[in-house]
Amino acid sequence: MHSTSSTIRTRRAVRTAAAVAAGALALSLGGCGGSGGKKSGDGTSGRESGGSSVTLPRLNGTSLEVAAVWTGAEQANFKKVLAEFEKRTGAKVTFVPAQDPIINFLGSKIAGGQPPDVAMLPQPGAIKQAVAKKWAKPLGPEARAQLTKNYSKGWQDIGSVGGTPYGVYYKAANKSLIWYNAKVFENAGAQEPTDWKGLLSTAQKVYDSGVTPFSVGGADGWTLTDWFENVYLSQAGPEKYDQLAQHRIKWTDPSVKDALTTLAQIWSRKEYLAGGPDGALQTEFPASVTQVFTGGDQPKAGMVFEGDFAQVNIGETKAKVGADAKVFPFPAVGSTAPVVSGGDAAVILKDSKGAQALATFLASPEAATIQAKLGGYLSPNRNVPDSAYPNAVQQKIAKSLIASGDSFRFDMSDQAPQAFGGTPGKGEWKDLQDFLKNPKDVAGTQAKLEKDAAAAYGNGS
Fold first, then answer.
1. Cα–Cα distance for residue pair 292/325, rounded to 1 Å
2. Are 86 and 92 in contact (CB under 8 A)?
3. pLDDT value of residue 414
4. How many CB atoms lie within 10 A of CB 248?
5. Helix (H) or strand (E) holding 67
6. Residues 127, 271 within the same domain
7. I want to staple 356 with a disulfide (CB 3.0 to 4.6 A). Which of 20, 68, 109, 140 is the partner?
């Protein structure tokens, strides 16, 4: 099983930035036969053809350190990418395991005079902090050229501060997916829903068949923020989403009340949650996934909400993605289905020829293609070939992310100051855990969220 820190990494790496058009996402996930047809004039030919597009300098005798919170298979797969960089340049690259929150870990390393050359930062807020503290160094011309060539403007902007590019979004996540046990749905006569009413109806059918509908990894507060963000984005709309993400409206706003009230339609049904609220709050994210796909057609729950990265955990069971484990887009609560996405960005902390070369490599399709082939990974790089992804479901999720272009919203809690949106036992994570425990207290939850947000944002609004 994954450690708590690997669980947290998933969330950012994953958190969410891309709001893909509902129709495109539904189409992309609707079937799993092949990688689909080619498009013209939209970069698809580059994604299919691949080919070398990055020139790297020789760096014999150069040693570099890269810090990230990744563990397990994620770390092992990234090391294979670093090994290719070593092969091409002659540099030696050491992976430095970081603790979460990584911004605190980096602070201690910098205070000790030993910062890593490059750090993988999971939140736009963390990039802004690193720039404000004068830790982060701007990307050089070679890395910027790769960004322009391979990334939509939206992904470039997310990694920039004040118009200056600092971050290469090497990894992304589509966090608007609900995975389900296909046999459970078949036995219940349940269909994939497209709207919230349909989700409630599907949940009731699963419950009536004798299986608890939902598995929730409430021990990791980030899963709960992702639930909220999907409901809020769809119900309140992107303009309100942006305002709340920047604390330009308060958490006591009626739109937040509406979203929490909607969430309570599921969270207040104790019988709908595996183990009830108390059980959910003791379940970490990896277990929330695996318990849906173990136990045959009588698992602990029939569905689990989370991103494409859940495939890593499904892989720990005997379930096969696309057959035993299927997926549908998070249903529309308002007029449009949401897609929240997130990612990890490579940020240079020690400006050198080697660090700039590594950032340039990580911005290239070659680097992302290596990790894409290994599974459990999604890249916002539009020139990664669809064929690089190891299964049809992953290929279609990747296509939907690229198809979103600039029409995305990054995970709201990842845009917030770390104290509010990214710290276990504090801020939004803790407040939504308390709400899961007592979903009748909508007003009290709003008040706590606003109090914690105001403190973290410095009472800005």
1. 9
2. yes
3. 87
4. 12
5. strand 63-68
6. no
7. 140
Within a domain: residue 33?
Answer: no
Q: Is residue 8 part of a domain?
A: no
The number of distinct structural domains making up the chain is 2
In a domain? residue 314: yes
Q: What is the pLDDT of residue 459?
A: 59
Report the pLDDT value the prediction gives residue 2, as an integer from 0 to 100: 34
- DSSP symbols for 395-442: HHHHHHHHHTTT--EE-HHHHS-HHHHS-TTSHHHHHHHHHHH-TT-H
Q: Could you say which residues of the chain have pLDDT below 50? A: 1-51, 460-461
Amino acid, single-letter form, for residue 111:
A
**pLDDT at residue 53 in the model:** 74
Q: What's the CA gap between 312 and 285, in Å, rounded?
A: 11
Kindly state whether residue 136 falls inside one of the protein's structural domains: yes
Beta bridge pairs of residue 273 = 214
pTM of the predicted model, to two decimals?
0.78
Q: Which two tokens stand for residue 293?
A: 């796909």
Q: Could you list the residue range(s) of the whole structural domain that residue 75 is in?
A: 59-174+341-410
Which sign does the torsion angle of CA 130, 134, 135, 137 carry?
A: positive
Residue of 331, 219, 315, 313 lying closest to 265 (CA atoms): 331
Q: Are residues 153 and 214 in the same domain?
A: no
